[in-house]
Input
Amino acid sequence: MAIAKKASNKATPDFTLKKSQMLEALEKSLGVVTTAAQKVGISRRQHYNWLKSDQAYCDAVADINNLSLDLAESKLFNAVNNGELSAVIFLLKCKGKKRGYIERPADEPPPQDHNKPEIYMRPARLAESDED
Output
């Protein structure tokens, strides 16, 4: 609801009641366009036309999408804090790539430095963290 009001302050002359209703429905559906459009009684195409033609509407939709991402991230961090292994793995795959937490196919060997014997090879995540 707060997002819809914020957008109406920057309203262009063609900012209609349906747009305000759509923004409210998007907020309630966490940005799911189909659900929101059905609730308001407009087509998805109309929503995308508004995105192209009305910068205030586009900005408000972007704010709503960021709110839904913030919610999902907070749920992920709660899961990590609760020790849920799948959440920890997901977070490391997404944010730990620089430290070597990358997924490789099972049949792909890890990268090797052919100038050093294998026994002296450091894991990629340790070698990359020294460069930071």
